[in-house]
Amino acid sequence: MVGKTDNQAPCQSSELWSQDKNWDITPELSTNERKALADYARCLALGKKGYHTVQVRRELTRLIIPLKTALKWMNAARTPSDSVIHNILIEMHCLNKPYWLWTEDQWVGFFCPSEGEFHIKFGASGNCRQYAIALAWLLCDFGRLELIGRFFQYRLCLKVFGKEVTDKAIKRIQDSMKRWGYNLEHDRNLIRNALCMVMLCQRESDPEKLKIETFKRVIEIGPAYMRTTVASLSRILSDMNILPKGIDHRIDNRRRPNQEYRAITNVPEEWLMWCQKWNELTIRSPSSQISMWYRILQCGRWLAVTHPDMTSPANWSREIAIEYTAEVSKLVIGKWSDPRSMYKEKHGNLMKPSARAAVLQSVRIFFRDLQEWGLIPVNFNPDRVFQLPRSIRSKIGPDPRVVPDDIWSKLVWAGINLKPEDFKYGKQLYYRYPFNLAKTVCIFWLFSGLRLDEIIRMRVGCIHWVDGKEKNDHKICILHVPINKTSKAFNKPVDSIIGEYVEIWEKERGVQPQKHEEKTGEIVNYLFMYKGNRISRGYINNSIIPLLCRKAGVPLEDARGPITSHRARATIASQLFNSKESISIFELQQWLGHTSPQTTQHYLNITPTKLAGSLLKAGYFERNRRMISVLIDQDIVKAGTNVSGEAWRYYDLGHGLCSYDFFEQCPHRMACAKCSFYVPKESSKAQTIEAKSNLMRMLQEIPLTDTERAAVEDGVQAMDKLIKELKKVPTPDKS
């Protein structure tokens, strides 16, 4: 039946399947049956199908009747019926026992991992494999469908449950699917197949009776391509109050690949026991805890080679701790670890200072915790012995990985100008999420300055608008940031474009199930929810950023490495700090949600333009350029008479010279006529007479308007007032 649609696929009538109690299911093959199977296999080698002969058909009757009865009940066509019976007879000859005694592993081997391999083995079509699976399910109670690879779950349900029962179960969940945003034309097959898979595994056609244990079994050991869909189905049934709760397949235990890297390889058993005990008792964020776990296991591998008799932290001495500190100080990538193919191209390179510091910090915390908990004796002070050497500590400091301005500007342009057609490109399935959800995530990444974890944990109603200080000011968008790794929840002003797109997505989002907040234990409505599930942690880094880079025409990496979600935070912070009307580091600390300005410094990259502007405002260079020129009488210096007190340094005032060494501290500053330090130039008198003449001419001879005359007289009065005030201030020579 290959090529037929689901509606055209043959299936059984509405009656329920039941086995005939009169069937002979004797467990052993008789001598005649074995001989008939051997003759059949021999005929097969000659290109004949032996069971068509009268003698073979007579001897194998009790084996064939249940197969034919079940196939007739399923309304199977003649060709696939004959083909599947033929294949089962051949396998019975190979296994030398009837099919109802086959183990589940033998059935799995018979089905092969895929239709292609089944066709290679038996020369039969995929539809034949489908009927073989149905026969095993009906006649032999085979239920390990999660182990047989890909197959058509819906069509198998049609064969064993019937179309009426199967479609009724599927229709039962469609209302919830539509309410959550599923497109029934495109998404129905995925959820439908997941429902059929669970029904088949539990051998239950009523969704109301499905058990959560069946869902967990399919997720843990079932095919990888179905885990996400089965988890989504569990959340739909939970919303319908059929299951107590949904399943998150990303955090539940599931089957791991055989070749997967195991961190405990080559770690001494006793050291591993202490590591596991510490891992059970410590209270840290999951990401920090798992990183420290790997590092203390790395220390165990070092022990196994250098001190195999000291694998317990209780036996460590100060000397061993110092030895390990020295080892970490020169640690290279790949040493004392089992990374398989990870970082293969960097093996043997010296670790970065920050990485070596993290290794020492993990071991330091490990020993300190065990000592404080009273589990091991205090043989040394971990804080002192595992202290980071100064030579490494000096190389660690703020080094923000800011995206260059030209690249960042292009990314911002790409984010603002995203269109739906930009999301359907290449291998990345950007279109899994609605356009407005994806664009809102883009805008958050480009303008909010938030951590990745904060973006995906945004809640419905996270923005509100407040009026500006002035009447004509635009409304200010205030964003509520949830509790994060360093601070409690807080509010921050953001660009209005964030508020606009949040409002658009909230209208389109519809009703979504509430989720458990892992940091606070609350039941919350996440903003970025679709089909009953929050967007994944890798969505921004693996989908959104490559999409923006492609549209902007920029590479995924620059001189500082890959463009990641967290680099936007440092870029935005640095641009705010370096802007013309910059904000202070303390304001940035509050805006970023840091607990101390020292943390904020790690996000700031002061540009040369900003630094030059600050120096210009400080006036250091300008003050030096404007400073009164200093003239040195080299003859006096060479003669040595300056030692006796004779003036040798002069400040050029233009109209005269000043020999006072501390001219900058002189309160008179240019009012020098009465000062003994003042040495007038020969032309000073002529300049004074000329200046007075010009002033008198301006006041008496030149016609001035009232405004101009008032300005001149006001200036004269100001000068008189200044001279009058300075009369009471002694000159540097105390006169």
TrEMBL record:
Gene3D superfamilies: Intergrase catalytic core. It comes from Acinetobacter baumannii NIPH 80. GO terms for molecular function: DNA binding. InterPro entries: DNA_brk_join_enz, Integrase-like_cat_sf, Integrase_catalytic, Tyrosine_recombinase_XerCD. Keywords: DNA integration, DNA recombination, DNA-binding. One of its GO terms (biological process) is DNA integration. This is Tyr recombinase domain-containing protein. The keyword DNA-binding applies.
